[in-house]
Amino acid sequence: MKAPQFKNLKEERKFLDTHDSTDYHDDFKITKNVVFVRPKKEVISLKGFF
């Protein structure tokens, strides 16, 4: 089964919420060295809150 193309991330999320990704296993590609980037943490001051 061929995975559809999406116009935006919202459309893709809606599709994946209602479909099983294993139906599209043939479209997956093997990748190496995947890096997940996390947003930088923000430092806040709690002085005076206690």
Write up this protein.
With 50 residues, this protein is an all-alpha fold. It has one domain. It contains 1 helix and no strands. The protein has one helix at residues 9-18. The chain is elongated and about 60 Å long.
SSE order, one letter for each helix or strand: H
Number of strands: 0
Rg over CA atoms, rounded to whole Å, is 19 Å
List the total number of helices. 1
Unreliable residue runs:
none
Inertia-based shape: elongated
Estimated structural class = mainly alpha
Biggest beta sheet attributes: none
Tell me the helix content: 10-25%
| Distance linking N and C termini | 58 Å
Please tell me the total number of domains: 1
Mean pLDDT: 86
> How large is the share of residues in beta strands?
under 5%
